[in-house]
Amino acid sequence: MLSTTEKEAIDHEIGLVPHKRATVIEALKIVQQHRGWISDDSVEEIADYLGISPAEVDSVATFYNLIFRKPVGRHVILLCDSISCYVMGYKGLYAALQHKLHISFGQTCPDNRFTLLPNACLGCCDHAPAMMIDKDLYRDITIEQLDDILKKYA
Amino acid sequence: MMTERPLTRNIYPDRPPMNLKEYEQTGGYAALRKVCSSMDPAALQKLVQDSNLKGRGGAGFSTGMKWSLIPMDDKAARPKYLIANADEMEPGTFKDRLLLEGNPHQLIEGMILAAYAIQADIAYVFLRWAYHEAAALIRKSIQEAYDAGYLGTDILGSGFHLEMYLHTGVGRYMCGEETALLNALEGKRATPRAKPPFPQISGLFGKPTIVNNVETLCCVPHIVNNGAAWFKGLSYSEDGGTKVYGVSGKVKRPGAWELPMGVTMRELIEEHAGGMKSGYELKGVLPGGASTDFLTTQHLDIKMDYKSVAAAGSRLGTGTMIVLDSGTCPVGFVHNLQHFFAQESCGWCTPCREGLPWVEKILLALEKGDGKPEDIELLQMHTQFLGPGNTFCALAPGAMEPLQSALKYFMEDFEKHVEHKKCPYD
Ligand SMILES: Cc1cc2nc3c(=O)[nH]c(=O)nc-3n(C[C@H](O)[C@H](O)[C@H](O)COP(=O)(O)O)c2cc1C
Ligand code: SF4
Ligand code: FES
Asked: B58 partner at 20 to 30 Å CA-CA among B91, B308, B309, B348?
C-alpha cells in the first residue's frame, strides 16, 4: 500500500496536470525517495493508484536510468564515465574504487554501504574527473582523495 | 578591451547567486516591467527576431522564427506552454549549469518574457536530475518571483497570467530532444515524436508549445533592455549576441567563458584555456559537444559561430569543446563516445538501436587488438546507414559525426590498431 505521505505527494502532482497518467514519473520518484528503490509491488501499487496497467508503469520505470528496479546500498556512487572524464582518467578512479570497495559497476557492497554505478556526463567536465555520491558532487578527484571522501559515508 | 558579457556579468564563482532583491538592484525584472507596460506580444516577437538570436541548444534555429509559428489568435488551443530545456546531458557540456546555478532569476525572467511573447499560460523548467543545487535555487527563485508578483495572475497589471513549475528528470539523454522531452513531461518514455505536427501546433498534452534552451532564454531580458542592434553588436559575426563557450580536456585551465559570438577556436584554447598542459599537443577538437565532427589544428583560426564551424565541416553545437590530446588514443576516445550513444539510444528505430551497439563493439575490438581490416570499412558503412535521414531523430546522426570525422582525420591510428594488433597508445 502507498503510504499517506506518498499518496499526498502524488495527489499534489496530479493536481498540476490534465490527467493522472502524466504523473507516472513523479510517482516513481516519490516512491523511490521513500523506499530507496522500486520493487514489483511498488510498480503495482503505483499502477493501481493511477488507474493504468503495471506493464505501463514498468515500461516507464525501466526506461530511465535513475529509477532503480533493484535494491541499492545506503549510498549510491555515480562515477562519470563520459568523454572529458575519460580523457582525464576516470578509469584510474574506477580501478581504485574497485580495489577499495571490492565491487564493480552495478554491484552493491555486502554490508550494503555503497552501490557503484557508471553515469553519463555530470555537467562539470571542466573539473573532470567527477563523481556524485548521493546528492554530493565531487570534482577534480584524485585517487589520493578517495579515502577521505568515502569516509564521510557510513 | 573589456568585452560585454551580459549573461554572466553578475555570476561569481565563489558567491551564491543573487536573490530576488539583488537581482532587481542590478537591473533585474526591468525588462519584464518594460514589456508589461509598453510592448505587445507581436512587438516582443519582432524584437527577438530582429536580434538574430539563434537557439543555443545545439541546432541553432532562429528563436524569433520559432516563436512566430505559435498560433496567436483567440481560437488558439489553450493552455499554451513554454518550456526551458535544462536537461543538459550532452557529454562535454557544462554551460547551462553555469547559468542555472549562477543566476536563476535571469532564466526565470527570460522565461516569463518568452511566455509573454507567445502568450503561454504555463511554463516548465525541465531540469536534469543531477543538478541538485540548481533545483533548489530554481525552486526558491520561482517562489520569490510569485511573491513579488512576477508570476501568477495579472502580472504587473498587464492582464497576463503565468504559472511556472520545476520538473526534474530521471536521467536519459533523450529527454533533451524536444519532442521526447514532451513525452517525458507527460509521464511517458522519452521517445521522440514524428514532426509534423510541430510542437508549436501540437506539443505538450497536444497544445501549442515552445521549447527553448536555457542559454537562449537567458539572452531575452538583455535584448529587451538594450535592443536588437546592441545584441547584434555584441557578436563578431552575423549571429547575434555572446556565447557561453567552454573547453575541457588536457588544457591548462579548463572552464567556461561568455565571449562575443565568433571568437576563434585558437583564442579559446590558447588564451582562455591557457593552452595545452605541458607534455601534450593538440590533436583534435570536438567543437560543440560529443555529437559534433572533429576539427583539427588546421582549423584553429575559424570563428566559433554557426556558419563558420559548419563551413569547416562540423557544428557549433553547444559551443563547449572537448580537446583530444596527443597522448589519448582517438579510437578509445571515439569508443567512449559510442558507448554513451549506444546506451542512450531510445530503441525506437532499428538502425540506431542495432547499429550503435555494433559500432561500439567494433571499436572495442580495435582497441583490444582484435580488429580486422574489414572493420574499418564496416565503421565507414555505419556512418552512412546511421546518417541524416535514416533515423527517427538526430541522436544517431549526431553519434556518427565524431566517428566519420575521426575516420577522416585519424585513419592512420585506426589502421595501426589493426596492423599491430594492439592500441599503440597503451
Ligand atoms: C538527443 C538530443 C539531445 C538533446 N539535448 C538537449 C539538451 O539537453 N538541452 C537543449 O537545450 N537542447 C537539447 N537538444 C536540442 C533540442 O531538441 C532542441 O533543439 C532545443 O532544446 C531547442 O532550443 P533552442 O531553439 O533554444 O536551441 C537535444 C537534441 C537531441 C537530438
Ligand atoms: S535515432 Fe536512436 S534515439 Fe533517435 S528515435 Fe531512433 S532509436 Fe531513438
Ligand atoms: S564528461 Fe564527466 S562531467 Fe562531463
From this structure: B348
pLDDT, tens digit (0-9, with 9 covering 90-100), for B380-424:
999 999 999 999 999 999 999 999 999 999 999 999 999 999 999
Q: Check residue B14 and give its pLDDT.
A: 85
CATH class of B330-420: mainly alpha
This complex has an ipTM of 0.96
- Determine what percent of chain B is predicted with pLDDT higher than 90: 97
Domain stops at, among A15, A38, A61:
A61
Alpha-carbon distance B134 to B142, whole Å? 12
pLDDT at residue B1 tops 50: no
Q: Provide the sign of the torsion angle of the four alpha carbons B298, B290, B351, B411, taken in this order.
A: positive
CA–CA separation, B322 and B425 (whole Å) = 19
Name the residue with cell 541522436: B395
pLDDT tens figures, B168-199 = 989 899 999 999 999 999 999 999 999 999 99
B176 alpha carbon to ligand 3 midpoint, in Å?
Answer: 16
Q: What is the C-alpha separation between B247 and B285, in angstroms, rounded?
A: 10
- Does A69 reside within a domain? no
pLDDT at A86: 98
How far apart (Å, rounded) are the C-alpha atoms in residues B10 and B109?
Answer: 15
How far does the CA of residue B402 sit from the closest CA of chain A (Å)?
A: 12
Q: Are A5 and A34 in contact (CB under 8 A)?
A: yes
* Best of B81, B87, B122, B189 to mutate (most A CBs within 10 Å, chain A): B189
Query: Do the bridges between strand B81-86 and strand B209-213 make them parallel or antiparallel, or are there none, so unpaired?
Result: parallel
Spell out the alpha helix ranges (H) of B125-164. 132-147
Read off the CATH number of the domain in which A147 is found. 3.40.30.10
**Interface contact flag, A83 B328, Cβ < 8 Å:** no
From the list B165, B248, B337, which residue is nearest A125 (CB)? B248
Q: Which of A33, A35, A57, A37 is nearest to A45 (CA)?
A: A57
| Residue B165 backbone dihedrals phi, psi, to 5 degrees | -130, 155
Thinking of the domain B242-325, which architecture would CATH place it in? Roll (3.10)
For residue B363, the one-letter residue type is: L
β-pairing, B242-248 vs A107-108, is unpaired
The pLDDT value given to residue A2: 96
Question: In angstroms, what CA-CA distances link A31 with A48, A54, B66, B154, B349?
Answer: 14, 15, 38, 36, 31
Segments in B165-213 forming alpha helices (H): 178-185
Pairing assessment for the beta strands B163-168 and B122-127 based on DSSP bridges: parallel
Question: CA-CA distance, B273 to B279, in Å (whole number)?
Answer: 16
Interface test with B, best of A63, A68, A72, A105 (most B CBs within 10 A): A63
| pLDDT of res. B2 | 53
Q: What is the pLDDT of residues B212-246, one digit of tens each?
A: 999 999 999 999 999 999 999 999 998 999 999 99
Q: Which amino acid is at B146?
A: Y
